[in-house]
Amino acid sequence: MTDLGVDYDYLYTIKKDLKTVRNEFTTCSAHQESMKDEYGSDLVSGAMEKFTDNWDDHRKELLENIEKVGSLTEQAIQNFEKLDKELAEVNKKKKK
Fold this sequence. Notes:
Blueprint: H1 8-34, H2 42-95
Helix pairs in contact: 1-2
């Protein structure tokens, strides 16, 4: 029989990192808007606006996927912690 090992520190790091990425994706449109005056030319500004509009559409999809992975990670943590607790209880009862 093989033992199942769960690296909780790693799972919590993933959860934290996904929140960081989600926050960056959520706030990056403000950075794009603040750069508008820095482009110098209407042609460059227009091209960048097209790019950022396209990026906004794709960012929404990426955000949805990041949130799904975050939810799955949270669910995995909860399920493993619950299983650990249940197995510890069963082991306690066996020792009595």
